[in-house]
Design a protein that fits this description.
The chain is mainly alpha-helical. The protein is built from three helices and no strands. It has one domain.
């Protein structure tokens, strides 16, 4: 839905690569959340 390859998403989740702000916004939109929700500590 975000138009990003699944291996790219996986490498971000495993902290193998950094994500750009543009791609972070694409992920937030695909998930239906605000980008600040992705940045919030849990």
């Amino acid at each position: 839905m975000a138009g990003l390859h699944r291996t790219y998403i996986g490498s971000i989740e495993r902290s193998e690569r950094n994500i750009s702000i543009d791609n972070m916004e694409r992920l937030a939109q695909a998930l239906g959340v605000d980008i600040t929700d992705l940045l919030r500590e849990r």
